[in-house]
Write a structure and sequence with these properties.
Blueprint lengths: L2 H4 L10 H35 L6 E4 H6 L3 H7 E5 L2 E5 L18 E8 L7 H4 L8 E4 L8 E3 L1 H4 L1 H18 L6 H21 L3 H7 L3 H10 L1 H14 L21 H16 L2 H18 L4 H40 L9 H22 L7 H53 L2 H30 L1
Parallel strand pairs: 1-2
Antiparallel strand pairs: 2-3, 3-4, 4-5, 5-6
Length: 463
C-alpha cells in the first residue's frame, strides 16, 4: 500500500487555522522588523556611501569624536553621529550633550545632513525643518535643497514584500503542523504522484517505487528486491516501442547483480522519457527531491521547485503576469504625475513606493518563469507523434491481417460443411431403394415417351 493511503491521502494535507495564524504572526513581525531596523540601516549605508564628502572614510559616534585629541583632523576623515543624525562636526560640536536631546544648530554642518530618526526638527533650534516620520538627506551631490523621504510611503511596500517572502521561506522549514508551506509542499508531493499515475497508467506501488529517493530505494532493495524487480519489469515491458526480434528483453539487462538505483535513474527513466515525455520523468525527479526535503527541511529549494513547477506556475502564472502589468501601470501614472510637477523632486517617496511595487512584481514574474517547465522541442514532439502514428498503423495492419485470417477460416469452414451436408443428403437419398426405383422408372418413362414422340413426328413427315 502506498504511503499516501497509509496516512489518509489528501485530507491529511489540509491547512488549519494554526497554519494561517503562525504565517500571519511571522509576516507582521518580520515586516515590522524590516521596516524599523533593516530599511533605515540599509538606506543610511547607501546614502553615506554615495553622497559622503570626499576624503571621508568612516562614521564615528559623538563620544569617539569628543575623546579624539585632534578634532580638526577627524572632521576631514570621518562623519559624526549626533544621536542618530550623521553630519560633519560644526563649530559648536563640543557643546553637544549626547542623549540630552539638545538642539543641533551650530553643532552640525548643515551642508551634510543624514537624519533618519523619528524626531521632529525646527529651523530655529536645529537649523533645518523635519516632521516626525520623515527622513532628511542633504549633501552637495544631491543639490541645494534637502531630500525629504516619507518611509511610510517609500518603503512600507518593500517591508511588506520582504516580510511575506521571509515568512513563506520560514514556513517551509517548520514542522508540518505549524508551517503553512510545509503542509502545502507535502500535499503537492501527493498530487505529483497522482498525476504520474494518471499519465502512465501504472499502479500505486509502481509509482511509489519510481518516486523513492535513492537511499530509500537502495534500502528497499536489501529487504525486498523481488518487489522492485517485478515493478521494473512492468515498466520495461510497458515502455517497449520495438517488436519482435528488435525488442530487448528485461532479463537481458537486469539480473541479481544490477544496481537498482543506477538502473532506474539511467535506463528506466530514459525509456520512460522516450515513451511518455520529459515532463513525466521531470515530475518524478521533482517528487523524489520533495521527499528528500521531507528528511531535511532546510533544503527548501527542492521543496520550492516542486511547488512552483507543478502547482504555482500552473495555477497562478496569468495572475502574476497581470500583477506585473498592474504595477507597471501604476508606475507609469506616478511618473507621469511627477513629470507634470505635481510631485516635487525633493519628495520622491511615492515614486520609490511605485518602483518597489513594480520591481517586486517583476521579481515574482521572473521567479515564476524560472520554475516554469520548458516546452518540449518541436522535433522531438514530431518524432513521438510519428512513432505513435506508425504504431497505430502497424496495429491496424495486424488487425486487418487477423480479420482476413478469420474470414478465410470461416469461408473454408462453411465450404467444407456444405460439401459434407450435400454428400450426406445424396447418400441418404440413394440408399433408399424406393427412391432408386422411382428414379429409374421416371428415367425409363421419359426415354420411352421421347422415342414414341420422335416416331410419330417422323411418320407424319413421310405422309
Amino acid at each position: 500500500m502506498s504511503e499516501d493511503k497509509k496516512h489518509g491521502g489528501h485530507n491529511d494535507y489540509k491547512e488549519t487555522s494554526t497554519h494561517y495564524l503562525v504565517l500571519l504572526g511571522m509576516f507582521v513581525s518580520i515586516s515590522i522588523a524590516v521596516y524599523s531596523f533593516v530599511v533605515p540601516n540599509a538606506v543610511k549605508s547607501a546614502v553615506l556611501f554615495l553622497f559622503k564628502p570626499d576624503g571621508v572614510t568612516h562614521t564615528i559616534s559623538f563620544s569617539e569624536y569628543k575623546a579624539h585629541a585632534n578634532k580638526e583632523h577627524v572632521k576631514h576623515e570621518a562623519l559624526v553621529s549626533f544621536d542618530g543624525v550623521i553630519s560633519e562636526a560644526g563649530a559648536e560640536a563640543d557643546k553637544f550633550v549626547e542623549g540630552a536631546g539638545r538642539p543641533l544648530k551650530g553643532v552640525i554642518n548643515n551642508e551634510y545632513i543624514f537624519d533618519l530618526t523619528d524626531a521632529s526638527r525646527s529651523e530655529q533650534a536645529d537649523g533645518y525643518t523635519k516632521l516626525s516620520g520623515e527622513w532628511i538627506l542633504k549633501a552637495p551631490k544631491l543639490g541645494e535643497a534637502a531630500i525629504v523621504i516619507e518611509p511610510a510611503l517609500g518603503f512600507s511596500i518593500l517591508a511588506l514584500i520582504l516580510g511575506f517572502a521571509l515568512s513563506i521561506l520560514i514556513s517551509i522549514v517548520l514542522p508540518p503542523h505549524l508551517g503553512y508551506m510545509a503542509i502545502k509542499v507535502r500535499r503537492e508531493i501527493h498530487h505529483a504522484k497522482s498525476k504520474v499515475r494518471l499519465q502512465t497508467g501504472f499502479s500505486d506501488d509502481i509509482v511509489e517505487i519510481l518516486s523513492l529517493p535513492d537511499a530509500r530505494l537502495a534500502e528497499l532493495a536489501e529487504n525486498d528486491r523481488r518487489k522492485i524487480e517485478l515493478a521494473f519489469k512492468k515498466v520495461w515491458d510497458r515502455t517497449d516501442n520495438n517488436e519482435g526480434s528488435a525488442s530487448v528483453r528485461f532479463t537481458s539487462v537486469f539480473d541479481e547483480n544490477t544496481d537498482v538505483v543506477t538502473f532506474r535513474n539511467e535506463m528506466l527513466f530514459l525509456r520512460m522519457r522516450e515513451f511518455f515525455s520529459d515532463f513525466v520523468v521531470q515530475e518524478i525527479h521533482d517528487t523524489i527531491s520533495g521527499q528528500e526535503w521531507e528528511k531535511n527541511q532546510f533544503s527548501f529549494f527542492k521543496a520550492l521547485r516542486l511547488y512552483m513547477s507543478h502547482h504555482f506556475t500552473e495555477a497562478y502564472a496569468n495572475t502574476v503576469t497581470g500583477l506585473a502589468y498592474f504595477g507597471a501601470a501604476i508606475l507609469i501614472i506616478i511618473i507621469g504625475i511627477r513629470g507634470l510637477k505635481f510631485i516635487p523632486a525633493t519628495r520622491p517617496s511615492l515614486i520609490l513606493g511605485a518602483i518597489f511595487l513594480e520591481g517586486s512584481m517583476l521579481a515574482l514574474m521572473a521567479f515564476t518563469l524560472l520554475y516554469t517547465q520548458e516546452e518540449e522541442r518541436m522535433d522531438r514532439m514530431l518524432k513521438k507523434m510519428e512513432d505513435a502514428n506508425r504504431n497505430q498503423l502497424d496495429t491496424l495492419e495486424d488487425v486487418s491481417k487477423d480479420m482476413h485470417k478469420v474470414a478465410v477460416a470461416l469461408v473454408e469452414g462453411n465450404s467444407e460443411m456444405i460439401k459434407q451436408k450435400v454428400s450426406q443428403a445424396v447418400s441418404d437419398y440413394l440408399s433408399d431403394e424406393k427412391n432408386i426405383r422411382g428414379e429409374l422408372a421416371k428415367e425409363i418413362g421419359d426415354i420411352v415417351l421421347k422415342a414414341i414422340g420422335s416416331g410419330v413426328i417422323s411418320q407424319a413427315k413421310k405422309n
